[in-house]
Here is the input.
Amino acid sequence: MNNPILTVEHLSVTFNHRQTVVDDISFEIHAGETFALVGESGSGKSITALSVLRLLPNNASLNAEAINLHGDDVLKRSEFELCKIRGRRIGFIFQDPMSSLNPVMTIGSQIEEVIKLHFDLSRDALQQRALEL
Ligand SMILES: Nc1ncnc2c1ncn2[C@@H]1O[C@H](COP(=O)(O)OP(=O)(O)OP(=O)(O)O)[C@@H](O)[C@H]1O
Ligand SMILES: [Mg+2]
Here is the structure.
């Protein structure tokens, strides 16, 4: 099998130095594979996903042996470098659209905003790509 797109090795996340909400999880995702992380509410699925992009709140501390995205160690990237990866090499559809989308902007313009940040496309091509998505 080809190299995995995403490798997470021994990830743990603790809040406020005392509440461990993700406890030593490891997994791999390969190209073309659908991977589902299943668990009851509050079991740490979102925190696991947010960890991959280093989008955790300030009171969280992350520990992992490796988080590799396309062979690139996410843990070694600066915030500036992560901004170039988020929305380009990996996308995130947040749960709860009422708080993750802006109600005074159309969905189309919010999708276009992400594409525009990473790709130099004409107005028409931008709109076309957003419609495809
Ligand atoms: N900012 C925070 N401060 C402290 N604890 C938090 C914070 N955010 C999340 N948690 C805790 O981390 C744990 C995991 O939360 P997470 O959102 O990952 O659950 P989930 O599996 O995605 O749940 P759901 O299925 O409801 O989306 C929960 O116990 C939650 O209360
Ligand atoms: Mg969740």
